[in-house]
Design goal:
By secondary structure, the protein is mainly beta. The protein contains no helices and eleven strands. The strands form two sheets. Strands 2, 4, 5, 6, 9, 10 and 11 form a seven-stranded mixed beta sheet that branches. A four-stranded antiparallel beta sheet has the order 1-3-8-7, with no helix packed on it. Strand 5 and strand 6 form a beta hairpin.
């Protein structure tokens, strides 16, 4: 399975925006569905958004729907998460990973990258 590298996190004020990127590392993942997950401080990792292999279908957790948008570029090797109207409760380390097409909330791998830190100040 492809390894991934997350980037684009940072510090932003409430109501601000960030765009996260998820890029293949070592091999491509263009044939797989990819999802974003996040782990808030002191909590377990949770599903955020998913996208199928060709970008034709997207899925969102209820808490981010309407604010976040997942997409992938033409190469299928870079996944984006556009985050608007950010709230303090969005503060977390954000991860991406390959997932099953039949359930984008389930990672295909137990290996996770370093993630990228998103901090939203009140």
């Amino acid at each position: 399975q492809a390894q991934v590298a997350e980037s684009g996190g940072g510090l932003v004020q409430t109501g601000g925006s960030l765009r996260l990127s998820c890029a293949a590392s070592g091999r491509t993942f263009s044939s797989y569905s990819i999802s974003w997950f996040r782990q808030p401080p002191g909590r377990e990792r949770e599903f955020v958004a998913g996208i199928n292999w060709d970008g034709s279908k997207t899925y969102y957790a209820d808490v981010v729907k309407g604010r976040f948008t997942i997409s992938r570029d033409d190469s299928k090797d870079t996944i984006f998460l556009q985050m608007n109207a950010l709230k303090p409760e969005d503060t977390a380390v954000y991860f991406c990973n390959e997932v099953f097409y039949s359930d984008v909330k389930v990672s295909r791998s137990d290996t996770w990258g370093q993630g990228t830190q998103v901090t939203v100040s009140s």
